[in-house]
Specification:
By secondary structure, the chain is mainly alpha-helical. Helices cover 50% and strands 7% of the residues.
């Protein structure tokens, strides 16, 4: 079996020269989002009734998103992979029916809504007694916003091109 060396100039299976700042911002944001799943999102006070049932912790403790949210953790983990998939698509030079970065931007927006919803909008985990947001929560929110920004920058730099109605090929 003879393996052919990759041509000079970065051309090969993955051409990293196609990657730009939005992909790097997106990948860093995705990595931060994944890391944020294992750092404290919520803290309980010394109040004996302050606990997080879903994470199984009591007073004067902290809980990660991984411990607290059985479904959300998988959604955020997949969201953290989205910028890496975008970078792979860009480096491969795949032809898409949409601007590269649009789907990543939309997924990042969904992540912002999910993080805000599971801490601020719908409140803290049950039973809601003396539970505060910890630094991991804010890290996840910033990471999701970074994914939105990276997706927006990538799709904006791709060029307008002809507009097509949704669902057309």
């Amino acid at each position: 079996m003879n393996a052919q060396p990759a041509p000079a100039g970065g051309e090969g299976y993955l051409d990293r020269s196609r990657l730009s700042r939005p992909e790097v911002i997106g990948m860093l944001s995705g990595l931060l989002l994944v890391i944020s799943l294992w750092v404290p999102w919520f803290s309980t006070s010394a109040n004996p009734n302050s606990k997080i049932t879903s994470a199984g912790i009591g007073p004067s403790s902290s809980a990660t998103a991984w411990e607290t949210f059985p479904t959300l953790r998988w959604l955020l983990l997949l969201l953290g992979l989205a910028p890496f998939i975008l970078a792979w698509i860009v480096a491969r030079g795949h032809k898409l029916g949409w601007r590269p970065g649009e789907v990543t931007m939309i997924l990042g927006m969904a992540g912002v809504v999910l993080v805000l919803g599971n801490g601020i909008i719908f409140g803290r985990p049950a039973p809601h007694i003396d539970i505060s947001l910890d630094w991991g929560y804010w890290l996840a929110l910033v990471a999701c916003i970074g994914i939105v920004v990276a997706g927006y920058q990538r799709q904006a730099t791709f060029g307008a091109g002809p507009k097509r109605p949704p669902g057309s090929v």
